Amino acid sequence: METHRQTDPIHDKPTFEDILAAAQRIEGIVHRTPVLTSRTLNELLGAELFFKAENLQRGGAFKARGATHAVQRLGEEAARGVATHSSGNHGGALALAARERGIPCWVVMPEGAVQSKVDAVRAYGATVVLSPPNQAGREAMAEKVVAETGATLIHPFEHSDVIAGQGTATLELLDEVPDLDAVVVPLGGGGLLAGAAIATEARSPETEVIGAEPSGADDGQRSLAAGKLVAIDSIDTIADGLRATLGRLAFSILFERSVRIETATDDEIRSAMRLVWSRLKTVVEPSGVVPLAVLLNGSVESKGRRIGLILSGGNVDFPL
Questions:
Q1: How far apart are CA 91 and CA 93, in angstroms?
Q2: Distance between CA atoms of 35 and 29, rounded to whole angstroms?
Q3: Are residues 226 and 237 in the same domain?
Q4: What pairing do the DSSP bridges indicate for beta strands 48-53 and 127-131?
Q5: What's the rounded Cα separation, in Å, for the pair 63 and 297?
Q6: How far apart are CA 67 and CA 298, in angstroms?
Q7: d(CA 109, CA 113)
C-alpha cells in the first residue's frame, strides 16, 4: 500500500505516467472490461465501432477506476474514511473502494437520484446523505459531512488521482484496438474525457478525441468554445450521470488539447439506448450511449472510420 504522496490531487494535472501507475495500482481490484462489436451497427454507420463496455465494470460504471485509485493512494488519513457527492455512479464506486480498504464512506446524493443507484450505494456499505438536487447543494452538503466526520473528500472529477484512474479505460481500449481514427467519450464533469485525452495523446497521437454530452447539459461545449468555464442557467437531460458541470481541472486538460465536443438530444439518446440494448444485448444507461448518439445524428463523421466508444455505465431503473 502506497502511503506517501508528492503531488496535490486537487490542483496538479495527471500525466500519462500517472495513468500507467494507476493501471498497476487498480489491477486485480477492478475489471478489465471487454470491447464489444456489432455488425449491424457497423453497417448502419458505415464504420468499424468498438464499444468499451464499462457498464460491465464493478459497480456498473467506469467510476470504479478513479475511485479505487484515489482510495488506494491515501495514507494514514484513510482511517477517517472518505466522502463525496454524486448522482450515483461515483458514489457507488467510492463505497466499493472504501469497503475494499475497510474504511467508512459517506456519499451525498441529490434528492430524486435514480433509486437503483441510491440502493447500490447503501448496499456497498456507505452512508447516504440526501441534498438539494443541484450542484451547489451537493457540494455544500459534502463540505458539511467532511467537517463533521474528518473524512477525505474524493471529488468525482476535480481530483488528479480520479482522472488518472479514469484514463485507464481508454488506455485499455487503445491497447486492445490499435489504429483507431477516433475515440468518443461521454462528458459530464470531465474526468473520463480528460483521462482519455491524456492517454490518447501519449499512446495513439493520431487518434482524435471527441467528447459527447447532452444538448440539455452542454456547458462543456460552450466552455471549450469560449476558452473559459461557462455556466448554463438550467440542466435538463435524461442522462443523469452527465448533469455535473465541467470541472476546472478537466477543462484545463481538454482546452490545452483542443478536444472537440458534440451534443445529442434526449430523443437521440433514447434511440441510441434502444440500439445498444437490442443489438449489443447489454444494459447501458442513457449517459453511456451519448457517444453513439452523436454518431447517429451526424455530429461525428463515421463512414469508413475505426471508432472507439466508451459505454460509461449501466445503472438504470427498469420501468417494470
A1: 5
A2: 19
A3: yes
A4: unpaired
A5: 27
A6: 34
A7: 7
Give the CA count within 13 Å in the CB-facing half-sphere of 288.
28
**222-264: pLDDT as tens digits:** 999 999 999 998 899 999 889 888 999 999 999 999 999 999 9
Query: Residue ranges of the chain with pLDDT lower than 50?
Result: 1-4, 320
Give the C-alpha separation, 163 to 108, whole Å.
Answer: 20
* Best CA proximity match to 105, nearest among 117, 113, 97: 97
How many whole angstroms separate alpha carbon 11 and alpha carbon 155? 12
Pair 297, 214 in one domain: yes
* Entry pTM: 0.92
Residue 220 included in any domain: yes
pLDDT at 320: 43
State whether 105 and 147 are in the same domain.
Answer: yes
Domain enclosing residue 136, as ranges: 63-153
Average pLDDT value over all residues in the chain: 93
Same domain, 102 and 145: yes
Using DSSP bridges, classify how beta strands 182-186 and 208-214 pair: parallel, antiparallel or unpaired.
parallel
